[in-house]
Amino acid sequence: MAPVRVAAFFRIGPTGCEPRPNPGKATTIKDLSRLIPHIRSLGRRYTGGALLLLATNALALLIPWYMKLAVEALQRPASARLSATTCALLIVALAVAHCVTRIYSRTLILNAARIIEYRIREELFQRLLLLDLPFFSGSRTGDIISRFANDLTNVRMLTGFGAMSAMNTLILYGAAVTMMWRIHPWLTLCAVVPFPLMVLLVKKVSQHMFRRSLAAQEELARLSSLAEESISAIRLVKSYCREEHFQALFQEIAGRYLEHNLVMGRLRGLIIPVMAVATGAGTLIVLFLGGRLVIAGTITLGDFVAFSGYLTMLVWPTAIMGWILTMMQRGASSMSRLNAILTAEPAVADAADAVSQEGVRQGIELRGLTFGYDNGKLLDDISCHIAAGERIGITGEVGCGKSSLLRLIPRLLPVDDGMILIDGKDINHITLASLRSLIGYVPQEAFLFSRSIRENIAYGVEDQWVDVSNAARRAGFTDDVNSFRDGLETLVGEKGVSLSGGQKQRLSIARALLPGPRILLLDDPLSAVDAGREEEVLNELRGFYGDRTVLIVSHRLSVFRDCHRILVLKDGRIAEQGSPAELLALDGLYAGMQRMQRLRDELL
């Protein structure tokens, strides 16, 4: 059977979840379309905000009209419908009402954007929890964090201030141009002639801004990844005096990020003068032609004042149009990056016919197990049966697939159908929740959360206040806990920085033992534990094993003393298998490893 190629399940780029290169208009629309359900669910807020914006602009549009009436009242008091004083008071009232409706329109729309940001963040985190090891092996932590922070901020700005500004611009343009048209159609046409030319130029510039914005976001992700990696490995950086190297690398990436942002700044700088030229040209046309119309008596001075007021009201929407386009491009590029995570599918998921597995009665069967990454085959035709309650040791040279073999059993990595069976059932047709609830897994590198020892041990159980002392004792960790001032409530620091390597491993063992799993997978669990403490832990584990099925990976053969059988892997295959006594009598690979370790111990 062909090997499983993990990377084939994902389009993994330099940062693991890159968006598609050179996205066009169709792709941009497709990326933004994911926002439609969120906007639709908040339709009342957006509708209410739009109605208030309509009221806001209606009030704003009435102000120039009453200014027109005020001017006409000053010119011809006898024939005026309203006095200049009345018009002034109405203008003040309109300004106050305009202020109130403006505040509430912004509150409704901007709060809706905050809710969308919250929901997408929840979706992102939920999706990340569903994705499996192949995805994360090709993704940088800093890049993912960048998407949670910077890209979500851009989307919030798009759905909030961007949406509000776009609605406001459309309403204001439609209403102001209509009012101008009522005063003098021909003058209106002349005043807005420069605007279409401006829109064409802005559209051309915005295409370049999209590409630059996407590139800038990618550089920011690389910058975040480098910062996260450097801080996490600060002790290693200092130990090897690599401060200058990482500083130079940071400056290089920061320089590229700066370059992309400077180009976007220049493009934005080009848009604003274009807006100003279009607006200024329109104003000049109105001053020249409108003045002549006033002199000719075609329109009144009040009409000219109102027309100029409406044209002035178009200055800000016209100027902000470029900023809205910039925000749309940033939001589209950010949504493209977010969609790379939101649309990613896990290689490992429950099959449609998956059933629950309650226990282990017959055991585990490996049937022609073959597995590999893109760099080649790692496990090749592994076949053996592990009876329920049997303890199996797995050893072999570095890189022969021991750890990958353990990860395949709880389906942390994808495996083809029919290769691993528990009680005769293909693990691909067992629900992930029930499968993993049967298994206690101790990884090669123990990871601890920045919480107390108690919380770290109880991580795998629902009740965080369960008695963890028995699990700590079985892992040989009780003496260490008692030596801490706060005992089980001791905070272990970031990634367990306050604990030694051996303490981390034993805490990790206690975590795996606490739920009482039926299958125990131990991946080199005592590599950082000294010989004396190793003896104590093995004695405690012997009492815990009972009828549990245990698989132990280790290079230290002393760990296998309670194992019924040992598998020796070489080049991805089972080269030898049998009890420790049988393998020593065979005088093969295992016997050679035993002699080498004995000689090493004597020399030390």
From TrEMBL:
PROSITE patterns: ABC_TM1F, ABC_TRANSPORTER_1, ABC_TRANSPORTER_2. Residues 364-596 form the ABC transporter domain. Its main location: membrane. SUPFAM superfamilies: ABC transporter transmembrane region, P-loop containing nucleoside triphosphate hydrolases. Residues 48-330 form the ABC transmembrane type-1 domain. It is a multi-pass membrane protein. It is found in: Cell membrane. InterPro entries: AAA+_ATPase, ABC1_TM_dom, ABC1_TM_sf, ABC_transporter-like_ATP-bd, ABC_transporter-like_CS, P-loop_NTPase, Type_1_exporter. The chain crosses the membrane at residues 46-67, 79-100, 157-177, 183-202, 270-295, 307-328. GO terms for molecular function: ABC-type transporter activity; ATP binding; ATP hydrolysis activity. GO terms for cellular component: plasma membrane. The keyword Repressor does not apply. Keywords: ATP-binding, Cell membrane, Membrane, Nucleotide-binding, Transmembrane, Transmembrane helix, Transport. SMART domains: AAA. This is ABC transporter related protein. It comes from Pelobacter propionicus (strain DSM 2379 / NBRC 103807 / OttBd1). The lineage of its organism: Bacteria, Pseudomonadati, Thermodesulfobacteriota, Desulfuromonadia, Desulfuromonadales.
